[in-house]
Amino acid sequence: MERTLIIIKPDGVQRGLIGEIIGRFEKKGIKIVGLKYMRLDEALLREHYAHVVDRPFFEAMEKFMKSSPVVIMALEGSQVVRIARMMAGTDSIQMGTIRGDYGLGLKSETPDEHSLPGFYNVVHSSGNKEEAEEEIKRFFGPGEIFEYNKEEWRHVYGKAC
Question: Which of the residues 68, 93, 121, 142 has the least number of beta carbons within 10 Å of its own beta carbon?
Answer without folding.
Answer: 142
